Amino acid sequence: MKPTWDIFCAVVDNYGDIGVTWRLARQLVAEHDLAVRLWVDDLQAFVRLCPQADAGAAQQWQQGVEIRHWPATWPGAEPAQVVIGAFACQLPDGYVEAMLRQPTPPLWLNLDYLSAEDWVEGCHGLPSPQANGLRKFFFFPGFTDKTGGLLREASLLPRCQALRQAPGEREQFLGGLGVQPEEGARLISLFAYENPQLGNWLDALAAAAHPSHLLVPQGRILGDLGTWLGEAELPVGTLHRRGALTVQVLPFVSQDDYDRLLWSCDFNAVRGEDSFVRAQWAGAPMLWHIYIQEENAHWEKLEAFLALYRQGLSPAAGHALSALWRAWNMDQPMGQAWTALQPHWEELREHARQWQAAQAARPDLATRLVQFYRNSL
């Protein structure tokens, strides 16, 4: 019998939470031969990532994963051998009670948010004592050997390399999205939360000597883009040219196609956690829009990652990169920061490739989860 795993996902950040858990569930099934149920409270968000799914189904199978709707009233279910509560979501009371009744209590893991902060290494893998006696542990994704690693399917980097090296592969993918950039244009993807600095950045791109083609999948940043363009609505396929900048609105694509989009671009602006990690695997310069927290608590996480990521960069390039990320996340002039980044472009490209290789040398998140489970037996 295959080991059974339950993953619970409460959708908070639109597509970040479900994005991570859906990738994880698929990998556990495909690469580790596990029986995985993914419990999701918002199937509409899931369908955006997996278009063939049924938003009205209480139970369905997609790519080997059993997808279950997690309703407000718990329907009852036999607990799995491993139970993952993603991002500190609260498991149903009825499910926890059923866990207590098992002859062998399940291994209960709290899969936490990704962070480069120093304290994460000390907390990763620690037990979280439960008054009811169940075994629960903290599991932190991360960027160092003392954390849980990053999501990375075995085929991810070979597929990325194949798209970039196979003749016409990149052009064929982009053509399927209706994208035909002018020769020599820098291709930029933009997936972000609302940001008042967008217009300032776009002004700099439009005034630049080098042409840019900005690809914007449907999402929350479209309101700010429409303000800059003077358009109330921006349907899929919208194409505008202003100065050296071409702006194009893309559909919200599946996870696999979003990966291909990142691989096809020269620079990727991403947000949250899921697209942030996928941009790192793309091995290209990037810009992170971190999820906003009260009292600007997210700034500490931003600075912690910058401190780690910029290691190996020259002081000038590291300063320029940090200035750009801070401008985007702290409402500072983006145009000035973007212009100051340009002299360091080639160094940042090489650094992104080196970072990708260094992270790929470490075990991935799914593998480390499975190892943690086996060590607990």
From TrEMBL:
<keyword id="KW-0648">Protein biosynthesis</keyword>
<comment type="function">
    <text>Protein-arginine rhamnosyltransferase that catalyzes the transfer of a single rhamnose to elongation factor P (EF-P) on 'Lys-32', a modification required for EF-P-dependent rescue of polyproline stalled ribosomes.</text>
</comment>
<dbReference type="Pfam" id="PF10093">
    <property type="entry name" value="EarP"/>
</dbReference>
<keyword id="KW-0251">Elongation factor</keyword>
<dbReference type="InterPro" id="IPR016633">
    <property type="entry name" value="EarP"/>
</dbReference>
<protein>
    <recommendedName>
        <fullName>Protein-arginine rhamnosyltransferase</fullName>
    </recommendedName>
</protein>
<comment type="similarity">
    <text>Belongs to the glycosyltransferase 104 family.</text>
</comment>
<dbReference type="GO" id="GO:0003746">
    <property type="term" value="F:translation elongation factor activity"/>
</dbReference>
<keyword id="KW-0808">Transferase</keyword>
<dbReference type="GO" id="GO:0106361">
    <property type="term" value="F:protein-arginine rhamnosyltransferase activity"/>
</dbReference>
<keyword id="KW-0328">Glycosyltransferase</keyword>
